[in-house]
Amino acid sequence: MADWLTMDEQALEDRLSEPCAGTREMLAKIPGDVVILGAGGKMGPTLAMMLKRAGPDRKVYAVSRFSNRQVRERIRMRGIEIVEADLLDESVYDSLPDCPNVYYLVGMKFGATADQPLTWAMNTYVPMLVARRYCQSQIVALSTGNVYPFVDPHGGGSKEGDVLGPVGEYAQSCLGRERMFEYFSLRFGTPMTLIRLNYANEPRYGIIVDLTVKILHDEPIDVTMGAVNLIWQGDANNYILRALGLVESPPAILNVTGPETVFVRDLAGRIGGLLGREPRFVSSEATTALLSNASACFERFGHPAMSLDEMIRVIARWVAAGKATLGKPTKYAARDGRF
To answer: How many CB atoms sit inside 10 A of residue 140's CB?
Structure first.
């Protein structure tokens, strides 16, 4: 454990961007350069780094506004080409690099309720522009498990073919993002995979960080959303990269998350045990929760390398040591769709 606590952010990103053998093998079979749109967000930097490490001779372009210059520099130092662009600006698309392979990580969640028009523009208008610009490429686009309805926490979670039921405008706009990609895939025959992810975790961000911060500050934990799914970000990155091998038209759909239904009360208790603190809870568990079933992913690519126990230990101790976090709560407990 000591090695995690002595890491700086660059060393942490080295861990999060280590490609597994299956990722290296899959990408070796797919020729051509790669562009990652939205590379400056929470997952984009380590996804870009993993992609470059898996194929060092391949050109990888990272496209973002890059408001965080330190993140931009850490990506550039890994041999990745930086392209600064505002993807809401239609005039930038002609200057984006031509690549046969596209990973799409653009999206707006935080502040979605405060600016709903911008949320819809980011989550539906930008996908339209991207799908039209890269209609001759193959695309893996990140979506979210929020497009599913709340389900019985003892039922195993929503599967890819289940009826959708997004709650609130953010989730509805995410379904809109999927529909835009689906429309252009059908129109142009563009092969795609849509990734429904929830929730990625690493020492600087995620539900485990949220709960650890609350426990350290003796803040009450609302357990109304009584169960969640968790996956280590490094494992999520590997699955997302390998999803390029699944693309088809109409788009393939893949849930990406961990294998367990994790009950929040139990998770907080385990974190509290590591910290030597007793969590405080408010409310009681609802009869439903937002949960996904990633069994199709595991059948294709195997189970995550990072266990839930190890993930909890690494993240809780990182946060307790006062090391860097992103300061972006997941708002996983929201049941009204307001983020």
So the answer is: 27
Tens-digit pLDDT profile for residues 8-57: 999 999 999 999 999 999 999 999 999 999 999 999 999 999 999 999 99
Q: Phi and psi for 107 in degrees, rounded to 5?
A: 175, 160
User: Whole-model pTM?
Assistant: 0.96
Q: How many distinct structural domains can be found in the chain? A: 1
Residue type, position 246, single letter: L
Q: Does residue 23 lie in a domain region?
A: yes
Any idea what the CATH number is for the domain that residue 296 is in?
3.40.50.720
The answer to whether residue 333 sits within a structural domain is no
Would you give the distance in Å from CA 86 to the centre of its chain? 20
Give dist(CA 59, CA 32) in Å, integer: 8
- Looking up tokens 């990269």 gives 241
Q: Which residue, 16, 2, 3, 52, is CA-closest to 204?
A: 16
User: β-pairing, 227-228 with 262-263?
Assistant: antiparallel
Q: How far apart, in Å, are the Cα atoms of 328 and each of 70, 171, 225, 318, 335?
A: 17, 18, 19, 16, 18
C-alpha distances (whole Å) from 140 to each of 100, 283, 314, 326 are 11, 39, 29, 25
In a domain, 118, yes or no: yes
Is residue 331 in some structural domain? Answer: no
